[in-house]
Amino acid sequence: MTTSHARSYDFDLFVIGGGSAGVRCARIAAGHGARVGVAEERFWGGTCVNIGCVPKKLMVMAADYRGMIEDSRGFGWDAHTGAHDWPKLIAAKDAEIARLNTIYVNLLDSAGATAFEARATFLDAHTLDVGGKRVTAERIVVATGGHPSRLDIPGGEHAIISDQVFYLPEMPRRVVMVGGGYVAVEFACMFAGLGAEVDLVMRQDLPLRGFDEDLRTELAEALAANGIRIHRTRAVLRIETDGAEKIVHFKDGAPITTDLVFSAIGRTPLTESLGLEAAGVVTDGFGAIRVDIGNATNVPTIFAIGDVTNRINLTPVATAEGHTLADRLFADVARDWALDRVASAVFSSPPIATVGLTEAEAAARGPADVYCIRFTPMRHVLSGRRSRKTFMKLIVDQRSQRVLGAHMIGEDAPEMMQGISIALNCGATKHDFDRTVGIHPTSAEEWVTLRTRTRVAEGPRSPAAETQLVDPVEIGAAEMGVGG
């Protein structure tokens, strides 16, 4: 709640950063009657709306249409893939982003918050320089997010980062993607889908470190099926140029000549030049602001939310943190949400979705029953794209039979996983899944027809414990009406 001496400040709350987390925190606090200011120096909506999730998914969708056109021939359509108009896609994307920018500003205005289109930096724990103006606040929230990391190698300046890809004037015909995380995977699939030759270079043996091992293996197969050349356990040594071409050199192996080098090696919290030291705010060795479970920093009146804390770097988590913090500070409302059961998606081709524990994480806690199925969805029985497999996996605590994790790669995986995540947050057991009647014919019904245990996971997984799929037929049994 606002303290009695708060009126001596210009604002009860000031938020640095106008992204998803900052705007939500600002408008909820203003809705509770707080005097709120929020500063954004670049664009309203932050990374997600402008140079992240939203435009990225629009571009991934554009790439998917190529496969859809080809698939339609198996259903009798006389369809042919024509040339793709990259400038038209970028213009349509820009128009949608501009619309969303306006919505974010309107949300703040309607809530009664004061918006500053300026950079804000700390002068002390209660004072900010906002575009050259001195502003004070009882409480301050840092919600500046993060930014892509660049390649720190000779010639690294010749590689673009994700911020730049959305404004490329033309579609590159050859792309070297450096990195094995979700950004690298998503854009590799996007460029490949639009017709580019793509080389994916990663330090790991499999993409998506930290995800379930079966998902990582399935994704690697899917990437290869998409025509993406995967270079495993390789590091870029230097980048040279020859006219418009880039030549990527490695410690071992032949160099690759390409039109575009894309650095997707991770993100760094955006805390440089904020003046945090003037306010006494502590960061870790990577620039992330250290916070407690309530998003409070070591300075009692300063908080941090979203990717700038480098905890769970997902837009919905950042938004929830902003909402929760505003409620707690100005309405004395406590919200309960589980950070260990947050669903996430990777918009690769096909997409990935996951919630809860991986098999290795579950096994480390005790014996876990593992249920898997891999099949060709009904659509691709006629499309002829048999390489478009779907893989589903449930991980169940053997003692309690509570479902600990769900993992999927396949069409509509993110849409399905949102519902599955509700079940896990409600503590659903395998019996709850088994007694649920499926929707037929769908791939989604496979979640409730997994009857035969694939294996038991106990401790570190050994090489001998490879997945033995329950039903390795060419189409999901339930979807064809023969499962159960």
Q: Can you give keywords for this protein?
A:
484 residues, alpha/beta, FAD/NAD(P)-binding domain, Enolase-like, domain 1, seven-stranded mixed sheet, 13 helices, 22 strands
What does this structure look like?
The strands form 5 sheets. Strands 1, 2, 3, 4, 5, 6 and 16 form a 7-stranded mixed sheet that branches. A 6-stranded antiparallel sheet has the order 17-18-21-20-19-22, sandwiched between helices. Strand 20 and strand 21 (403-409) form a beta hairpin. 30% of the residues lie in helices and 22% in strands. The protein folds into 3 domains: 4-148 and 269-337, 3-Layer(bba) Sandwich (FAD/NAD(P)-binding domain), CATH 3.50.50; 156-265, 3-Layer(bba) Sandwich (FAD/NAD(P)-binding domain), CATH 3.50.50; 341-457, Enolase-like, domain 1. Mean pLDDT is 93; it is low at 462-474. It has helices spanning 20-31, 46-51, 53-72, 86-111, 162-165, 182-193, 213-225, 276-279, 315-330, 359-365, 378-383, 413-425, 430-434, and strands spanning 11-16, 36-39, 114-116, 120-124, 127-130, 133-142, 146-148, 174-178, 197-201, 229-231, 236-242, 245-250, 256-258, 260-263, 267-269, 302-304, 344-346, 352-356, 368-375, 390-397, 403-409, 455-457.
Number of strands: 22
Query: Taking all residues together, what is the mean pLDDT?
Result: 93
> Looking at the structure, what is the overall shape?
globular
Q: Helix amount, in percent?
A: 25-40%
Distance between the termini: 55 Å
Would you identify the CATH architecture of the largest domain?
3-Layer(bba) Sandwich
Count of the separate structural domains: 3
Uncertain stretches of 5 or more adjacent residues: 462-474
Helix/strand structural class: alpha/beta
Radius of gyration: 24 Å
Main sheet overview: 7 strands, mixed
Percentage of residues in DSSP E strands: 15-25%
Can you identify the CATH superfamily of the largest domain? FAD/NAD(P)-binding domain
CATH topology of the largest domain, which one? FAD/NAD(P)-binding domain
Which CATH class of the largest domain?
Alpha Beta
| Separate helix tally | 13
